## 1
Amino acid sequence: MIFSTVYTSRSSEPWDSDALVSLLALSRRRNADAGITGLLLYRDEAFMQVLEGEEEAVRALYRRIAADPRHHDVTSIWVAESPRRRFADWSMGFRDLGERGVDLDGYHDLLAEPVDLGRLARRDVVARLLAHLAPGPDGAAESA
């Protein structure tokens, strides 16, 4: 089974497009070594991330993220197990404020509207968002 968790957080400082592109490239390399895939969304100093892989590896990464001073208000909003990954190709979406487009594997420009972290704390909202971004695996089982 693939373990996944979704969290939201606030950034301690704003990130520009170049920093986010670097973060995506670094995350894809490091997480591939740990067998972790997922999705990272950023807009207006708010992050939402899906992490998926072997449970111990995902939980260890989540603990490192929660302790990272670049984040605050880190809140786990979803935990699940499923027979397969939703985001095997590691993707990232953010609002690009630059004049140039982002040409990097895994980047998606899907955050046209501001992120409401309070609303994202509702499980039904997370479920609809995940279903929109990537179809759920058949037989996916949620866990507490």
## 2
Amino acid sequence: MKIKAEFTFPGKLKDEPLICNICKQFAIVLSIIEASFSTDTGWAILVIVAEEPEINKTFQYLKAYGVEIENIQKIS
């Protein structure tokens, strides 16, 4: 499964390596399409390729840190 989604990161996470962590912790392949981070907030458009259960676990992990995930699209 391949999905594209928009992720918004709270400013309090600016020093956390969340993107690196999800690549190590979950069986996903991740591409950063576009991103911008500041001290107040950050956002990224990511493409994730993985089995659906692995994507769901990745999303749960990020949401537990307060990351908002929007505009989820399945792509081919």
